[in-house]
Design brief:
About 10% of the residues are buried. The longest helix has 16 residues. It is flat and about 80 Å long. It has a domain of about 45 residues. By secondary structure, the protein is mainly α. It is about 40% helix and about 0% strand. Helix 3 packs across helix 4.
Length: about 140
């Protein structure tokens, strides 16, 4: 009895695949098939099965690990890019050769010195807990098992 060949490529899908334009520098050979790969994953197809479909039906040589990596990169959310309002943005003039004036340099030095001179920790804290133990008063006996 002849074995029936099952094809997942419908005439509609074939038209879409034929109409995919060639890219000058595709990032991946799977990029043209991205919507189909993601849809097949949502439908529950395994990475191995998707690799078989792409290899047999679409003539794209790819392993199941390649499909897995592609899906992980393709499905991750992109970081939103902040919008910049050019009318509100202000540009600070840059000093010649990027150097500070003598006044600005001295102001920064004074500021850093003021930060270094401030101490938030009280050095004379009362000794409590482990600080009260002195080495000659502590005995340690290992437990036998």
């Amino acid at each position: 009895m002849p074995k029936a060949e099952i094809s997942f490529i419908t005439p509609e899908l074939q038209k879409v695949l034929d109409s995919v334009p060639e890219q000058n520098n595709p990032r991946s050979r799977l990029d043209p098939f991205k919507p189909y790969i993601l849809r097949w994953r949502r439908q529950g197809k395994t990475y191995r099965r998707i690799a078989e479909i792409l290899t047999n039906e679409c003539k794209v040589s790819v392993s199941h690990k390649g499909v897995y990596k592609f899906v992980k990169l393709a499905a991750r959310p992109r970081k939103p890019q902040p919008e910049i309002d050019l009318e509100l943005a202000t540009v600070q003039p840059v000093a010649a050769k990027g150097r500070l004036s003598a006044e600005e340099r001295q102001a920064r030095i004074d500021f850093v010195r003021s930060l270094n001179s401030k101490t938030d920790v009280n050095e004379e804290q009362p000794k409590t807990g482990w600080d009260e133990l002195e080495p000659e008063n502590v005995s340690y006996k290992p437990q036998r098992r």
